[in-house]
Design goal:
This protein is of the alpha/beta class and 283 residues long. It contains 10 helices and 7 strands. A 7-stranded mixed beta sheet has the order 1-2-3-4-5-6-7. Helix 5 crosses helix 6 and helix 7 packs parallel to helix 8. It is globular, with a radius of gyration of 18 Å. It starts with a strand and ends in a 10-residue tail after the last helix.
């Protein structure tokens, strides 16, 4: 079995329809993927239909925007109840905040003469998709200002840029507990991806574990070998499982689907821990 538990579609900031993400997985020999768009479950139904047709099992998931004292933390929630009031409220709040954040970031960029408009950014996103910085990057690429998303993030859109604007996100420890309340299984995405920006300390991850964290995404392209080893050792100490994932975004990132994978025994643990009634979709 080849299992990739972190992929994105154009329901958020990926470049492919959910069905096309599944087709890409099938073409690369994957047996199982999780669709984990940012703060939305909108792609689940389409991905599930494609999975049944193509023989790829679909793990319904979401990547929740969270933070701890201003440090961004991405939390994967697997097999959550999408109708849980608390979780749905937090994700809706985050999506609305992302919209206003886009307005402020675009205004900041335009004020410095950088050729981007909010209309151009919205044109990069599928209607109803969760907006994010990658959509600004795509608008800048279309305008010919940068060659690709990576160049936009390297200079203009990273966390340290003068144009960067924070958006609403719940505290990560509270979010872990909320995922458990929604019957799901929380896993911390790329916990030590230091080149993306600041990361939280082991002490914070200990607090997350006390709140119900299930695992750490140790095997990710943004982790160098020492960071992977750290994640594995910390997970072992805290009694957590470890996952491996691609964080696939289609053409939006260099990440290739299935470039890191998860042990089938770990997926079995996730299924055993979930209590929401949401299940892996298998043919």
């Amino acid at each position: 079995m080849a299992i990739d538990l972190h992929t994105h579609s154009n329901a958020s900031d990926g470049t492919h329809d959910p069905a096309d993400v599944v087709a890409e997985a099938a073409a690369h020999g994957l047996t199982t993927i999780a669709l984990t768009d940012h703060d939305t479950t909108a792609g689940w139904a389409e991905a599930s239909r494609a999975g049944l047709e193509l023989g790829v099992a679909i793990v319904p998931g979401v990547e929740i925007s969270t933070q701890h004292h201003g440090i961004s933390v991405h939390l994967l929630g697997y097999l959550v109840d999408p109708d849980h009031p608390g979780l749905r409220r937090e994700m809706e709040h985050a999506r609305k905040s992302r919209d206003t954040r886009m307005e402020r970031m675009v205004a900041n960029l335009a004020a410095d003469g950088i050729p981007v408009t909010l209309e151009a950014v919205r044109a990069q996103a599928k209607p109803g998709a969760t907006l994010g910085r990658p959509h600004i990057a795509d608008a800048l690429v279309e305008a010919g200002y940068v060659p690709d998303r990576a160049a936009a993030f390297a200079d203009l859109l990273n966390d340290r840029s003068p144009y960067y604007v924070h958006h609403y996100a719940p505290d990560v420890v509270r979010a872990v507990a909320l995922v458990r309340e929604a019957g799901g299984v929380p896993v911390m995405a790329h916990p030590f991806a230091n080149r993306r920006g600041r990361t939280v300390t082991d002490h914070v991850i200990e607090q997350m574990a006390e709140a119900g964290l299930g695992g750490l995404e140790a095997f990710h392209r943004d982790h160098l070998p020492p960071e992977r080893e750290h994640a594995v050792a910390l997970a072992e100490r805290l009694g957590l499982f470890v996952t491996g994932s691609s964080d696939y975004h289609g053409a939006g990132k260099e990440n290739r689907i299935g470039e890191n994978t998860t042990d089938p025994a770990v997926l079995a643990q996730i299924e055993e821990q979930a209590t929401s009634g949401t299940t892996v979709v298998r043919a």
